[in-house]
Amino acid sequence: MPLLKYQFKPGIDKEGTSYTNEFGWYNSDKIRFRSGHPEKIGGWSKYSSNTFTGTARSLYNYGAATGTNYIGIGTHLKFYIVDGTAYNDITPIRATTTNGILFSATNGSSTITATDDAHGALLGDFVTISGAATLGGLITAAVLNQDYQITAVTTDTYTFTAKDTDGDTVTANASDSGNGGAGVDGAYQIHVGQDNYLSSTGWSADAWGEGTFGSASSLDATNQLRLYSQDNFGDDLVFNPRAGSIYYWDQSSGTSTRAVDFSSLGSASNTPTTALQIMVSDVDRHIICFGSNPIGSATLDPLLVRWSDQESAVDWTPSSTNSAGGVKISSGSKVVGALRTRQEILIWTDSALHSMRFVGAPFIFSFNELKGGVSMVSPKASVNANGMVYFMDRGGFFTYSGQVSPLPCSVRDYVYSDINLGQAYKIFATANIDFNEVMWFYPSSSASEIDRYVLYNYIENVWSVGTMVRTAWIEAHLENNPIAAGKSGTDANYLYNQEFGHDDDGSAMTAFIETADFDIEDGNNFMFVSKVIPDIEFRDADSGNAIDVSIKGRDYPNDSLSTLSTSSITNSTQQAFVRCRSRQAVLRFESSGTGYGWRLGYFRLDTRLDGRK
After folding, report:
1. pLDDT class of 233 with cuts at 50, 70, 90
2. Which of 87, 279, 332, 546 could disulfide-pair with 568, CB 3.0 to 4.6 Å?
3. Secondary structure E strands in 1-154
4. Given this model, what pLDDT does residue 490 score?
């Protein structure tokens, strides 16, 4: 037979079997489709060599009137403001102790015990110690006067591990006790959050004897997955840990100044003490809380939407002379999440989607239910792109552009049959507008952390899937590239410039795409392949860079695939000679080198019939 040109349908389709998707693409990793052809996605590199502490699940980029570009980072342990490449810790202070901390150290141990009556700290919280002097031996003032994470607590004491200014553990060479000098102070940061989602508290929700083990308690910002929402109010930043307090960072005070609770702001009037999410409305500039405590109560009402007076961060008391107010949403049991769109704010409860629109006095905002029976799988599972809203529910993908519509998905079963919905609140959506894409990152069923993504090209209406560990991602319009947060095996983590180069932060990034099964004459005959003529566009490649092209085969759909031939294709390869025989065949294209990208065109195979056995 003559050479046959193989043109595979764009997009990954895993809704049927590999054979039912004949002449389509069936599997991929680190691949996107552009103009109908698959190509390796862009790589990434560290935004800065500096690290931050904790898992970042919230990023926000904005510019101040001074021209300074900021990134807010909310982790389960800290909150940072990035100015340049420096990660500045602006985590709010919960309480302070002045001249009241005593220490004890034991010879041969690096554990320091601090005594501070009714300190209120929880396991894992951070305290900044100042004013201490040497505590005998190697536990010097420089060792004590630092930021420490608490390793054990009682009502009046806590412990931490002594370290030097480089972060190395320091062991006491003498036993000692006292105040480590006169006037030891402690600044206790707000309670840390959890790095995993809990659907409830009580028996077995924590380790034996820790937290809520053996007792029931309501879910709050300290015993739940730490999810921050954040927005800029002019040059300043407001942020909120889900089910926690609301905080304000004053940009004019500088990056060395910590954020403060709203209630501590001058002229504060009935500011909310707890919220599920905060947002600043775009035109009218109200600060809005989705899920909040009513005025006169400290208890969270998860359906109450409250907003401040226009152009005010501090006046939350409704009156005839301002526009502050509140409305309780009529359906559902809690607000899952909200998203600002053009001319309206969308609010998802656990049972319906609602619209919130600015209408001016006397009602200020109007609320309408758009559709019942839909929700979001997580508070961050929606994104704006291409004049539409895309969101993920617990059973499918949807769009909103005035009305809610299901989004047909050729990988839906693949995603939902292998997803850890027990950690669903970690799922987040993002957009990559340079490539007409929206993406959802999610944990697979065998993982407790995000390890996969599903990608949709909304212009070409095609899907692809892959693996990547990212816990947050923003378009970052003020930066040169999208910015994403990675996660290491420790709490020292990095930000990354995405779509930068071709590599995994300087290391090889494995990318592959694999076709569905194809045959000759509906598989009535075996086929024999003797030659491959490639059509590959290499980018930034030298003569040694290659893509491995494998031909796999099986005789029946339920057989396992066997690799029959693998050819290394470079930018100078004209043809590759092979000897492959099977009833059904699959092509796989894979690269694992550094410094280059690639895009596939049409492949031609020298294929002939080879009998009926």
Report:
1. very high
2. 546
3. 3-6, 9-12, 24-29, 31-34, 37-40, 44-46, 52-53, 56-63, 69-75, 79-83, 86-89, 93-97, 102-105, 111-115, 126-130, 147-149, 152-153
4. 86
* Cis peptide leading into residue 362 (ω within 30°): yes
| Residue 165 within any structural domain of the chain | no
Quote the pLDDT of residue 540. Answer: 93
The tokens for 255 are 């990056």
Question: Quick check: is 29 in a domain?
Answer: yes
Higher pLDDT, 562 or 224: 562
Q: What's the CA dihedral at 362, 365, 371, 373 to 10 degrees? A: -110
* Beta pairing, strands 9-12 & 24-29: parallel
CATH number at residue 542: 2.60.120
For residue 417, give its domain range: 46-92+219-498
289, 274 Cβ separation under 8 angstroms: no
Q: Are residues 538 and 579 in the same domain?
A: yes
Within a domain: residue 164? no
CA distances from 64 to 68, 83, 311 (A): 5, 11, 17
Determine what percent of the chain is predicted with pLDDT higher than 70: 96
Residue 124 sits in the same domain as residue 145: yes
Q: Please state the domain count of the chain.
A: 3
> What is the rounded distance in angstroms from the CA atom of residue 131 to the CA atom of residue 187?
11
Residues 403 and 449 in one domain: yes
Segment holding 416, helix H or strand E: helix 412-416
Give a yes or no: residue 54 inside a domain. Answer: yes
Same domain, yes or no: 407 and 395: yes
Which token pair is 198? 């809990």
For residue 309, which amino acid is it? D
CA atoms of 598 and 413, how far apart (whole Å): 29
CA atoms lying within 13 Å on the CB side of residue 89:
15
Q: Which residues pair with 433 in a beta bridge?
A: none
Of 463, 498, 533, the last residue of a domain is 498
Claim to verify: residue 449 and residue 333 sit in the same structural domain: yes
Q: What is the DSSP letter of 603?
A: E
d(CA 198, CA 205) in angstroms, rounded, equals 7
What gap in Å lies between CA 416 and CA 399, rounded to an integer?
A: 18
pLDDT of residue 612: 60
Boundary residue ending a domain (498, 531, 555): 498
State mean pLDDT over 303-325. 97
Show Cβ contacts of residue 558 under 8 Å, excluding neighbours closer than 6 positions. Answer: none
Average pLDDT across the chain, whole number: 93
Residue percentage of the chain with pLDDT more than 90: 87
How much is the average pLDDT of 573-587? Answer: 94
pLDDT of the residue at 212: 47
pLDDT attached to residue 215: 44
Which strand ranges, in their side-by-side order, compose the sheet holding 527-533? 3-6, 603-609, 527-533, 576-582
Angle at 102 (CA atoms; ends 100, 103), nearest 5 degrees: 150
Instruction: List pLDDT tens digits, range 236-278.
Output: 999 999 999 999 999 999 999 999 999 999 999 999 999 999 9
